[in-house]
UniProtKB/TrEMBL annotation:
Taxonomic classification: Eukaryota, Fungi, Fungi incertae sedis, Mucoromycota, Mucoromycotina
Record key words, sorted: Membrane, Mitochondrion, Mitochondrion outer membrane, Pyridoxal phosphate, Transferase, Transmembrane, Transmembrane helix
The organism's place on the tree of life at top rank: Eukaryota
Cofactor: pyridoxal 5'-phosphate
Annotated ranges, domain Tryptophan synthase beta chain-like PALP: 50-360
Entry's family note: Belongs to the cysteine synthase/cystathionine beta-synthase family.
GO cellular component annotations of the record: mitochondrial outer membrane
InterPro entries: Cys_Synth/Cystath_Beta-Synth (IPR050214), TrpB-like_PALP (IPR001926), TrpB-like_PALP_sf (IPR036052)
Protein name: cysteine synthase
Cellular compartments annotated: Mitochondrion outer membrane
Amino acid sequence: MSSSGRTLLIGIITGSIITVLASSLIAQLKNENKEEHDEPTTDIVEGVDGLIGNTPLMKIKSLSEATGCTILGKAEFLNPGGSSKDRVALNMIKIAEEQNILVPHTGSTIFEGTVGSTGISIAMIARAKGYRAWIVMPDDQAKEKYQLLEKLGATVEKVRPASIIDKRQFVNLARDRALEFKEGDAKGYFADQFENEANFNAHYNNTGPEIYRQTGGKIDALVLGAGTGGTLSGISCYLKQHIKKLKVFLADPQGSGLYNKVKYNVMYSPTEQEGSRRRHQVDTVVEGIGINRLTKNFDKGRHLVNDAFRVTDDEAIKMSRYLVREDGLFVGSSSAVNCVAAVRAAKKLGPGHVIVTLLNDSGQRHLTKFWSDEYLKSQNIYAELKPEEGLFDFIK
């Protein structure tokens, strides 16, 4: 055979070998890829309960860049019920089940007094677990909260706003409804989010550890509002045990007495005490935080709060519009208060610090009040964010 023939033959053989090897390698990779996709995972959760918690921690870019600090918001609005109250509702119900106070599918009813978010969370979980929900609320909340509760199958009882000394105050009425409940073997359970330590424990055992893991413990300050106080106390108690230098700041809306309690150890003047004033007890368009009495849940962590920031309605409203404009972040009123206070904490601490707050819920359940220009004008609130207005134009 000539040399050219041998060269041709060697080329053909070599090409065939390469083709076979390549085909074999491709087939092997395909099989490995198939096996990888066929491999069972543990990503499937059991019902709506499994969707609660483990929410992401996001850097709020506009606030971080403006302050020189890293300001992080825990996206609690991504819980299935739309707020951090899912954690509390789930834990209160679980503990009641463990104590045989609640038994599923017996007609038992969960009663709660709430301004909305806890009620929505209870209604959702009650449906999933085989209970009924009876929610008592002040009649001045955003109407979409009532609508959502009704769509979730809850009985909604609206009452006029009143102080805690009034028997028809929404919390007192929910307690009475539970005590009066009689329907065969079914039980009435008053969840009592303000005093029930299952609230505190939900955040001490879950939210706090999540934040610690997500940040690797590298946090300088925690900034939170308080209504029941369970979120603030639970997270603070956990994080302070692991981060000794951590500063805790209370974010308090106008009309609430907690700011004065932290700053001056005086809850209110005699004329502002619950039961003495004729106006709404927390005179603000902010819903979900702010109160004029001390609860058991708040008291558990009160000694850990280093300072407090008062946030006006104007500041909260402008912050919410600013976050949409700069970050595409559509938050509710208490989240906006938290963000204003987080900026104040950044100014107090100086650049280079890591500050964590909670984004409690989205603006979707605040459309008819906090996010309604028409409603705000009816309350003589004119807090429009001008196009040229920057962060430090409305936060001094």
